[in-house]
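Page header: ASSEMBLY MODEL / two components / 846 residues total.
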Amino acid sequence: MKKVGVAVLGLGVVGGGTCRILIDRKKQIAEEYGVDIDIAAVLDRIPERVTNLGLDLSILAKDIDEICDNPNVNIVVECMGGSEPARTFLIKALEAGKSIVTSNKEMFAKFWPDLEKAAAKTGAGLYYEATTGGGMPIIRTMTQAMQANGIQEIKAIINGTTNYILTRMTEEGADYQQVLKDAQALGYAEANPVADVEGYDSSYKLSILSSLAFNKRVPVDIIYREGITKITAEDIRIAKDMGFVIKLLAIAKQRGDKIEARVHPVFLPKSHPLANVNGSFNAVFVVGDAVGDIMLYGRGAGALPTGSAIVSDVVFCARQVEHARYPEMFNVMTQDQIVSDFESDYYLRLNARDVSGVIADIASVFKKYKVSISQMRQDESKEVIPVIFITHKTTEKAMKQAIEEIKSLPNVLSVENVIRVEK
Amino acid sequence: MKKVGVAVLGLGVVGGGTCRILIDRKKQIAEEYGVDIDIAAVLDRIPERVTNLGLDLSILAKDIDEICDNPNVNIVVECMGGSEPARTFLIKALEAGKSIVTSNKEMFAKFWPDLEKAAAKTGAGLYYEATTGGGMPIIRTMTQAMQANGIQEIKAIINGTTNYILTRMTEEGADYQQVLKDAQALGYAEANPVADVEGYDSSYKLSILSSLAFNKRVPVDIIYREGITKITAEDIRIAKDMGFVIKLLAIAKQRGDKIEARVHPVFLPKSHPLANVNGSFNAVFVVGDAVGDIMLYGRGAGALPTGSAIVSDVVFCARQVEHARYPEMFNVMTQDQIVSDFESDYYLRLNARDVSGVIADIASVFKKYKVSISQMRQDESKEVIPVIFITHKTTEKAMKQAIEEIKSLPNVLSVENVIRVEK
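Prediction written out in full:
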């Protein structure tokens, strides 16, 4: 039987879960897949983490060089997180001829070409199922199950923290700050939640998915990004009343020879398959030109789901005789290949004075910018009235110009929120 | 670049769709996957089908032997349907060293071991993504993305025809016969709908999925099977009222050292991810012990979705240096390894005379068989009253005995329907 040695860098939640699975399922994997996988080395600053897993301290390496020099290590699994030293360690491993498996989306999204280059030198393999969507096999699906398809569209809920917060806001009618605090206490959100709530995490993952979809690297910094911090209980309530839910979506679309790539909150009709993806679950909806609509749904994070994706990559990698190369990742999409002035329907909530003519004034601004209105709502008469518009499809530019002008109308007090509508 | 020759057996809907994709995406597949795929031969009784695809008549083979002898054919794609001659043709191809790709679930579910045996002789590959779930990559997910998992449970909507019928019955409040007729007129159901509506098609697919899940062949004939023909508009209406939808599910569960494998209609809570899978869409919900819940959703049939799965297999197969073997399929699960007296909650609808004591009589029968009641409903008083029970978890045996005895109660006129409840 083929013997395979694995080194695990970082024994935190995900690294620990990966070791757990490799130990517990060693026999079954050998029987079912014909590869006998051993943990040949680990790297971590805390020796107790090694012994707590029931592993022998003798496999704790002093540094990455020791692992690169170890002839028993075939595959290096990286679960350290952060750009450095993860990137440097993995490049060393690849240059030493070790295949790598990583769950580190930030590092991978930023330095994919560097890793491809190092891998190409030695013929080593590069596996990253665990970077995106936890245990949900979206990378395997896009690379090994949609070869017959041109990808037309991706819509994804790929951040569990924000989906958990939005779900609780929807269920409880609670405000963002209140739910965030609770999510932090429960461990669903980090003490510093910026990477999640401002959409950075989703944009790393969208960079990876859209690069695979369009066969050209879509760097993180050309992805439009907007987080969930401005979503209020009021917007959630109105969405619900009108048959929508609010979700943070990562969206990529082919548009002629350009693409769209954006992360932002959306109004999504309740009947959309993604609308029922709740709590910390993730889901990716993909449209292929042959297969039509497909969707994957699963746990986007956690020791065992993410460990499951890593071990799947380890087994897949161990059975490959020759590893697939992605030279197209050296080919980078630039800002001018992104549709900057994309089209969407919009939800607009504003406060106005209850005087006659204010709606007519707003409507004439919309008319000027050719923004057509699909629905309008006006709450009961008080001195200040909330007014809600949902527009038909229009461009970002037209909408921004219209909003600037609406803000300056004498009887409009404030524009409270603008959220795109996705169908 | 690696050159690969494909022979397509059967140029009907699926075979035609496959050729269409192979022709249209030849260049992109070569660029992205490094394999140059040609249609080297076809087999069909209707020469027009060849020319209609823009293919040259010179590649139309006179019989399977000519294809087996053709050194330019590396992979044989079978889209003929039916057990024979498909099985014989594929065994011949495997013995001639050609890898095979098939969409034929009935043949594959029945003769998988024969095909494995023939493939093992020559080292040829066996690919069958298109047998189950159309374009949804459930086979690839189970074999290439869940290696770290013991599979605990599968729940699947894997027959588009029955899901279409049940969806329309739910949306329109219409009766089974009426929707079936309409579905036949629209091409969503066959003139002879037995294979779909009686659950045979779902049981073929469940045989394939559960064999992969439990690493042991689960033959079709030990799968419990019940179709949708007895579901009435009345049951659908009651389900809706009580927060359920009725779906035809294919279910497989690990139960200690035994398994459950069954196809039947169920009451499913509206909040279950499968409850929102409507129309002709398919979805498979899988629980792995590491990954937790995952779900795949997509089009279960059609020329291009199924063609997408076939072409994915062709590309996957073409890039393999060594093909995976599944010798565990020679190991067959027997009737005694199936939990025959499985447990479930039950929905029971009966008609009774509106006389005092009838409910007490029924309740005492339930008590005798230790069936505990979760909900009871009784419609407004007429001479004949419909009574609905939903039970807590109980065994099939206890439920059957209770029903037999309830039928014989003097004031019970008829037991109208019994449907299992799945959560």
